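Researcher: Here's my situation. A collaborator sent me these components and asked whether they could plausibly form a single complex. I don't have experimental data yet, so a predicted model of the whole assembly would be a useful starting point for our discussion.
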Amino acid sequence: MSPPLLELRKLSVHFALGPRSWTGKPRTMVHAVDDLSLTLERGESLGLVGESGCGKSTVARAIQGLVKPVSGAVLLDGVELGKLRGRAAREARRRVQMLHQDPYSSLDPRRTALESVVEPLSIQGMFKPRERRLRALVLLELVGLDPAQATRFPHEFSGGQRQRIALARALALEPEVLLLDEPTSALDVSVQAQVIELLSDLQRRFGLAYLFISHDLALVRHLCTRVCVMYFGRLVECAPRDELFVTPRHPYTQMLLACAPLADPEFERAREQASITGEAPSSSNPPSGCSFHPRCPRKMNVPGNRCARERPELHNDGVRERACFWIEQT
Amino acid sequence: MSKGAPQSRWNLPAAPMEALLERLKKKRSQGLWSIAWQRLRKDRTTWFAFVFLLCVGGLSLLAPVLPLPSPIAMHIGKEPLPPQVPWSAEGRAQFEPQYWTLSSLDKRLVGLRQLAFKQWQTGPYLGTDSKGRDLLSRLVWGSRTSLFVALAAALTSLVIGVLYGGFAGLVGGPVDRIMMRIVDALYALPFTFVVIFALGLLGSLHSVAGIGREAVFFIAIGALYWLTMARVVRGQVLSLKRSEFVLAARAQGAGPLRILFTHVVPNVLSVVVVYLTLTIPSVMLSEAFLSFLGLGVEPPKVSWGLLAVDALEAASPLNVYWWLILFPALAIGCVLLALNMLGDGLRDALDPHSDRRGVQT
Amino acid sequence: MKVLEVRSLRVRFDTPAGPLQAVDEFSLELEAGETVALVGESGSGKSVASQAILGLIPRPPGVIETGEVLLSGENLLSASPERLRQIRGREIAIVFQDPTASLHPLLPIGLQMSEVLEVHEGLSRRAARVRCAKALGEVGLSDPEKRLDSYPHELSGGMRQRVLIAMALLCNPKVLIADEPTTALDSTVQVQILELLRKLQHEHGTAILFVSHDLGLVARVAKRVQVMYAGRVVEIADAEELYARPMHPYTLGLLQSVPKLSRSGEVRLESIPGAPPDPLQHVVGCAFAPRCSFVVDQCTKHRPPLAATARSVLDVVLVGGRRSACFERERVGRTVTKPGALPGDLGRMR
């Protein structure tokens, strides 16, 4: 069986927190991502959901090699990215590209749209110089922009248009995996729809695999075929889309779904009222055992106060993967 | 395609774009610099300051050609003359081409002037000093030295500061920390002592390598003014390092050198330019002060600082020679004010968000 | 009983780039104890309109061209600065989007809260503290007495927003303006804050003007909705009717472009082509016409009115206080937006 296109194996990323001692060693470490494993197949859309501070953006950064993991590995087609050097590393870099959240800072304000899209091509040495510019124009048209505007600067474009330029840039290297880190949360709803449908079309046309990171569950349901839920640096549930949304098992997933807006007053009234309590834990004071237990309505059902003492591991029960003691005993 | 470069697999026909590419090559949209230029022109106070500085610069460049009296021709024994109206005959003399050692270009310009104006020269419109030298001429010739020293020192501080601060910011980590501690330590040194020391030390080079006293002087000043520039540049580089487009470039495989020159430097330049226009006044004042102390420009050369020395020498309890201090002070003051206004205006002009100040819908 | 009424408000900004029409015809009726939502995307003028009610628009460069803001009959636009200061915080309160930016980072929250009472009710520091502690308890903060001495950075985002809501309601205002109060918060916290607002409204009878860009959120919160586009109000309706049967093409377009949690992605998100008009340009006719799929000839020539007039058959006021600024509203109203998706599709908590 061929290895998955992208695989994260027990990935852990820790950051230093607080002032350093005079030798430069930090005093406390934050476990931004902890022991995280997931796979992404060719042409698949995987949604990674979670609230702010859960570490999903850090996952994207680690895949891109912008932060170094303290343990674990990122594998592309079975090859560990961290071990590659030189040309092989550059080749690998090419296959995984990212679209950032903020359209206002992801483009160099001093380069035209055309130059921004040409840049990756010249970094990697693809095409002859003149052909690169032609290619860039084609890409800009592909993402729905008027190529005649290619010589304009970012500040002359709207947020949605800038996001399209960033997308053209990401596609320039013909990647196989596109990391989408909240690509539309800074955009208006009507513009968001355009960008999402564009992403959908592009995926069909070029067979791209998406890792779609978002806090917007409705969007994830619309775009993705499989969904992973993160909480405080760890995965708590991973399931095919319809399984997750119709029958969520993990208490946190259930809480997220209960909180997500339904965009319809009639549905809202028909909805069951869930008890939502508490907030995300602070990184400097992590909870013991299962990180969700302070807010979990099910921990009473687990005997022996296990949720506060032990940390549940991710189990695959054939349908989905989930990390919860309560699920295990039901 | 270069050897070993990745192959393109997506089939995207480029032929339809050929015509467009040709068209686009001809026109070029407005970059941030040209927008800044337009904004500068619209802002009246800044534009006025800019024009004023251009005039001052032009005058000082053209000094040898102007029909001014010699700035160093002395007429000892006469009382300092107050400013004379143009038609009065008092104090007028014939043109005496006395100067310090001029460059060959300047010598030719003086020759031109003699051809054009023969023996005629302007009268003491701003008065004369205790040694009978014409103040207007000394003011104009003095501007050359003062402005030149200020520009040279500012540029030196720019080069050192940008390289030092840029490197520290980019490299980061312990190297950055050490480099900045050095800057902090140097900040603590008292400026005047360091200049005296440097001049003493480098002055001995003068006899060895023939370096002019001025060169030593403005290296010493520039070498001290780079500190703040280094800090400013480092801060800017640090924030740029974290910006999304730099991260995107890294993710595409760009090396640090490429990132430095294509992304960091252009974005740092605007800050550097603004800061430069604000450093120059500072340097000018330092030069004036040092010349005043006798550590800077030496007579027979003239600078605005030395004019203050003249004013002091001429001061006596009996007569008030107000023109000797008023005009140099006005000159320095106006140029400094103009530079500050220009710096302020440039900062606003280069800020991409200043069109809709504080208006949020 | 109408507690707040805004009539024909127009706000202009004089910028270096020219005059910018931020609000171009805004009206509002708010009754005691009800929640009205003001919905619009960026550039719609909703924040400017809500801030203009409290006189928070800096002038210059802002200019209130016309309009009346009536608080129980009194026109706030012609009120003196002292009167406005009396009203702010006491009769109309406002909660902003970013709780971190709204609190002074260097002062303990007890001090910031008691300031409101000291200014408006002349209470002593001690008496004010007691009231503040009670208010913190009402918004669900544990250990209110101790909390008064905490600094903002010691509290989480959700707690800070609760503090701001408590501050806003200290003097029992008649109207609370909430300008995107939950945008900066996580969805789990968001729900708690909305629940809190509902509970407080029920207890105190406050009228709430809820400003937001999030159509999904608004469905949860509001009884009536006003949709804004390009500085104008384009539709007013009861929330259920609006979502079931919008009568303005912009509202329809918005609803179709929002991904529905209750449906998987078989249905394409319909986006609205084009972009909102540049507020620096003067618009003739309907501002939405260039992007509208229902557009007819007169849309580009005349501006469709919102209020009822008896002049023509097209301007009929619809049933139940519904209003729409569109010449083709009937045709829009016949478009179906809910193709039979069931709320029961979603997971339930057992």
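Model: Some features of this prediction you could bring to your collaborator: DSSP finds twelve helices and eleven strands in chain C. Chain C touches chain B at residues 13, 15-17, 20, 22, 42-45, 47-48, 58, 61-62, 231, 279 (CB under 8 Å).
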